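2024-03-11 09:14:02 DEBUG pipeline.ingest accepted 1 chain
2024-03-11 09:14:02 DEBUG pipeline.ingest length=570
2024-03-11 09:14:03 DEBUG pipeline.predict start
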Amino acid sequence: MIPILFGPVACLTLAFPFPFSFPPLAFSQIIEGSLLLVHEDKVYKVNAWLMSHPGGEQLMLHFIGRDATDNINVSHDRKTVEKKMKPFYVGDLADSELGQYRSLLPPSLLGFHPVLAGKGKPVTWVQEGDTRAFLEGRERLAEASSSSGEVASPAFRTRTTPHLPAPTLLLSDLYPPAPQPFTALEAQAAVHFKELSVIIDKSGLMAAPKYASGYSVELVRYAALLAVFGSCWYGGVYGGVGSAPGEGWKQALIIWVSAVALGVFWHIMSFTAHDIGHRSLANGSYFWNNILGVLISDFMGGLSIGWWCHEHNIHHHMTNDLEHDPDVQQLPFLALNKGSLNNLWSTRYKEYKLFDKIAEYAVRVQHMTYYCLLSVGRFNLCILSYQHLAIYAHKDKMWAFELTCLAGFFTWFGGIILGQMPSWKLRAMFLVVSFMTASPLHLMIVQSHYSRSMEDMGVLESHMTKNLRTTMDILIHPFLRFYFGGLEHQTTHHLFPRMPRHNLKAATVIVKDWCIKNGYQFDSYGFVEGNKITLSVLKSVADQVKFMGIVAADSVDEMTKKGVAQAFTP
């Protein structure tokens, strides 16, 4: 019998027919449709906040039943937490649970999604896909039931058995395995991270830097790049260059320079959009960061800031999780871990990322096509952001404003910049060059994660341990630092995502020194070395796929030969 203690809300007792080690606190109300999470030993019911959460519905669902203290604190300032969360407070943890609550598995990580009955009302859990955590949990349940002599639960629908009835969410599904000493080490890591957070807060590095050390310098760069872009474009289109016979190459060269300048502008401007997505500007104002974000990202860059916030917030808190981090779900073109070869369910895209024949052929050569794929990454970002606006974002407050600003982008970029060029060849060249020039952004970001661990360590892993395990810093020459925007310090950024990126360099010195003193690994590699490591990871997965193909081919040959031999045997 396991007591379920939950402040003033409930005091229940449930019996479990299998010998698992469970935490003493169990939120049975989650099964019944209450969206509960823990923050600093207080319990919050967020049904009424789910659709209004600025960080996205899916991100909040990933923390139902969990202790979200560190994740909430690093993503919001103290005033916002106290103001926004107070209306959803429903009780405190029992005394026996204070400081040692053991997180549950959120239904979303099991492939379940809530069907809303109305704002603030209980939800109904419906499974959309089967995740590894769900299948492994049901296997443990079946084994435990079998060993205790109980009747096994009926078979349920999975991707491979679509004809069977859909499974219902069980309370036992929410309990992750808790191996020792893993849980004790992670609890200690959480305590250590609080100590590090105090050091960072006292350093003053969470505050925005003065203009002279931050955006004033960047504004000069933006203005210079726009001046080069505009003057070269005007000279190439209206300046008469290339009008004389044999001078067409001069016109193409000037327009090429214009495209490069625009691409570099988009590249470094994206760092400011990134700051806005983390609410690092305008004193953290949600309203003004949204307005600035849409103007910069949608109107000037042609990408949805709403899509980016939803994707990037999930990435920060589910880093390198093959089923839940959209940034590492790159099939059919890339498989970043052998786990990607198993047809995984994507909780973000609500579909199975299938390792089909197309993926098999693409992954075999992924270490050779890697840079080519990154070079066209901006086209993919456009597709994903427009898909988000068309399917998911119609309820967002900024949806209409985003569509308006995107219409403005297509007007100035498509109708004027491309439309006024004298030939389709120059239009195509300008489009491709400007988009490809922004590709170093993708190379820089993915290098910090693609070569790192992608193991699923479960919900009991602390925020600090997870990010030290899945992220690394890139060491670059000081002359090139402006082109990386300060985000080469990805580890510190992931530990403290609200920190202004201009302060990441100074903070990294503190964080790295603290990690070394306290026995935590802080990894950093040079740009070239980091690329080599990433390519070696891609080649390793490609070699596994080739080996699988060879084994499968040999098996087919053996079976064919055996069948032929049997056919001719009298």
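2024-03-11 09:14:41 DEBUG pipeline.report The chain has a mean pLDDT of 83.
2024-03-11 09:14:41 DEBUG pipeline.predict end
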